[in-house]
């Protein structure tokens, strides 16, 4: 039996509705949140693929690693900033932990100082957990998982 994309309720009949600019299959109760496009929706069964996106993240202690590595190499902030083609003030804020470097800059810092400040994370931790259950993921589940963080 098809499930509503908003509330997750299983219904024999769903309607296609335009909600927040997106066309979704919803029960008649949730259709009130948008504009009904079609009165009946045929359910097409799709195999759920649980693709997890690998993303780069800057580690929490990046500023300590950068400062310690720079000092070990005997460089001043100004010298390192010139090597990296960055402003000294930016490097100062990065080492103070007030500014996170971009991934691109973090990679340059890693290469220059021979350290690791980027680690891998996997996007959608709660989404992956939900996909493993029997119930289909709904927009409501996604919104709830964002609020639970």
CATH topology of the largest domain: 434 Repressor (Amino-terminal Domain)
The value of Rg in angstroms is 24 Å
Strand order of the largest sheet: 2-1-3
Mean pLDDT: 78
SS element count, helices? 6
- N- and C-termini, Cα separation: 31 Å
What is the CATH architecture term of the largest domain? Orthogonal Bundle
> What's the CATH C level of the largest domain?
Mainly Alpha
Helix percentage range: 25-40%
Envelope shape: rod-shaped
Number of domains: 2
Number of strands: 5
Structural class: alpha+beta
The biggest beta sheet is recorded as: 3 strands, antiparallel
Order of helices and strands: EEEEHHHHEHH
Oligomer: single chain
Strand content of the residues, in percent? 15-25%
Low-pLDDT windows of residues: 40-50, 124-133
Name of the CATH homologous superfamily of the largest domain: lambda repressor-like DNA-binding domains
Structural features, described:
It is rod-shaped, with a radius of gyration of 24 Å. Mean pLDDT is 78; it is low at 40-50 and 124-133. The protein has helices at residues 62-72, 77-84, 88-95, 103-113, 125-131, 139-148, and strands at residues 15-19, 22-26, 35-38, 53-58, 118-123. With 149 residues, the chain is α+β, with helices and mostly antiparallel strands. Strand 1 (15-19) and strand 2 (22-26) form a beta hairpin. It has 2 domains: 15-47 and 133-148, no CATH class; 53-121, Orthogonal Bundle (434 Repressor (Amino-terminal Domain)), CATH 1.10.260. The strands form 2 sheets. The chain has a 3-stranded antiparallel beta sheet, with no helix packed on it.
